[in-house]
Specification:
Helix content is about 40%, strand content about 20%. With about 425 residues, the chain is α+β, with helices and mostly antiparallel strands. A six-stranded mixed beta sheet has the order 1-3-5-4-6-2. Strands 9, 12, 13, 14 and 15 form a five-stranded antiparallel beta sheet that branches. A four-stranded antiparallel beta sheet has the order 7-8-11-10.
Length: about 425
């Protein structure tokens, strides 16, 4: 074996020993030292097309992730299994030869880098004590700051908070808000609650509630009263690393179990549930509360530790997939000229149904009339669009069927040719039927 190969092999073994030590420290400290999976981070970016910035010398310490190979190296770019030896040693040998190696390829987000190609080269460069490495750089517009030591959970929480505030503008509507979570995916639960409340209030009021009003209502009448109870009762004393929002979400997720445990009414609000917790354990029994909750919910002690799949380091954001599916379905339905579009809320408790009538109906006014408004001929006027068609979106509770018809110009009745079914009515004609 040549001297170069021997040196490379010894350095690989040294890197493997360092990797094993870091893994032990990570287990004892609870820190995640794995490279960040670029695919998971990219899924959170609004801008998917990076700009090429040319060849640069980049700091190796700012490489935090990889495209597809994040399980093969740790955050220190040390190899995590012996199967990498042959390739690693060969790359090391090239580095000591006159020709060297070509630049690696990286994606840049903020101030950190993800390796697109060249994981072994970066690992060898780090082992050789190099502080920088030459790289082709493709940069994404900065959206969320990522630090060299940030875990995947921390990064996803930042993206979740950004998405939540951009959707709700709660920081503007309620500047005093202090919503923080310690587990990824929890902001999605909050968005689902707001969407559900908007659908409920729209159904009750028989008109679409503006989203901003639903956000404010959710914060004022659902979130804030529960958080005040949590705060006043000191329910987080035994969970110092968690937040009030964590416990709020935990109560939401484990609603059925909490109701059953305390014998509450099945329709109890989160505020009632929080008061039940506070009342039973208010007299210095917080240690008992912690033990009781741990026993009741096992590993899902409040607030839940994580939603990561233990066999993988990526996070499944199921609502994002649902939203994408919804958009694709909606586009397809419009392309096929289907006039009824169903859009279910994330909890699937309500369905936002868009009713449409083509311009060919030749009417000046159209009202949607049906079971959902007690056949009121004036409560649901449809909006006339520029092309002469009519449209109206109504939130309806799911798991039900509704009869409906259109009243044109206050005198003509018409059905929807895209209805799910038609049923005879008492006037000798048919009603349209929609099933949600």
């Amino acid at each position: 074996m040549t001297d170069e190969k021997t040196t490379a092999l010894n350095e690989f073994k040294q890197a493997r020993r360092q990797a094993r030590r870091r893994q032990l420290v990570a287990r004892l400290s609870g820190r995640d030292l794995q490279l960040l999976p670029f695919e998971t981070i990219r899924a959170q970016l609004k801008q998917r097309n990076p700009m090429y910035r040319g060849i640069q010398q980049i700091p190796i310490r700012k490489i935090v992730g990889s495209v597809g190979r994040y399980r093969e190296f740790n955050r220190g770019l040390q190899p995590l299994n012996d199967s990498l030896q042959a390739r690693w040693v060969n790359v090391h040998s090239l580095a000591t030869a006159a020709e060297g190696w070509p630049p690696i390829e990286v994606y840049q987000i903020g101030d950190v880098y993800f390796i697109k190609d060249g994981n072994h080269r970066a690992s060898v460069a780090k082992a050789m004590g190099n502080e920088t490495i030459e790289a082709h750089v493709w940069q994404f517009p900065e959206e969320v700051q990522i630090g060299p030591d940030d875990s995947l959970d921390e990064v996803l929480i930042r993206f979740g908070r950004r998405n939540f505030l951009e959707a709700t503008h709660l920081d503007t509507l309620r500047p005093e808000q202090d919503i923080e979570v310690t587990t990824p995916g929890r902001f999605t639960e909050l968005l689902a609650q707001i969407e559900d409340l908007q659908a409920q209030l729209s159904y009750i009021d028989r008109q679409e509630m503006p989203y901003a009003e639903a956000v404010a209502a959710w914060y004022d009448i659902i979130y804030l009263p529960v958080v005040q109870i949590i705060r006043e009762a000191g329910l987080l004393v035994n969970f110092p690393e968690r937040t009030e929002t964590d416990l709020f979400v935990w109560l939401s997720i484990h609603r059925d179990a909490v109701i059953a445990q305390f014998g509450l009414d099945a329709n109890s609000s989160l505020e009632v549930m929080a008061r039940a917790l506070a009342h039973q354990y208010k007299e210095g029994s917080l240690d008992k509360l912690a033990r009781h909750v741990l026993r009741l919910f096992g590993q899902e002690a409040p607030p839940p530790w994580r939603i990561l799949d233990q066999s993988d380091s990526t996070v499944t954001i199921e609502y994002d997939e649902d939203e994408q599916d919804r958009q694709e379905t909606e586009v397809k339905m419009y392309e096929e000229n289907i006039m009824l579009v169903k859009n279910y809320t994330k909890t699937r408790n309500f369905c936002r149904v868009t009713f449409k009538l083509p311009a060919e109906v030749s009417a000046e006014t159209v009202h949607l009339v049906g079971d959902f408004n007690d056949w009121d001929t004036t409560s649901h006027p449809m909006k006339k669009l520029k092309d002469g068609s009519f449209s109206l979106t109504v939130s309806l509770p799911t798991e039900q069927s509704y009869r409906f018809r259109y009243l044109l110009d206050g005198e003509r009745w018409d059905n929807d040719w895209a209805a799910d079914a038609y049923v005879p009515n008492e006037f000798g004609s048919d009603d349209s039927l929609i099933k949600v």
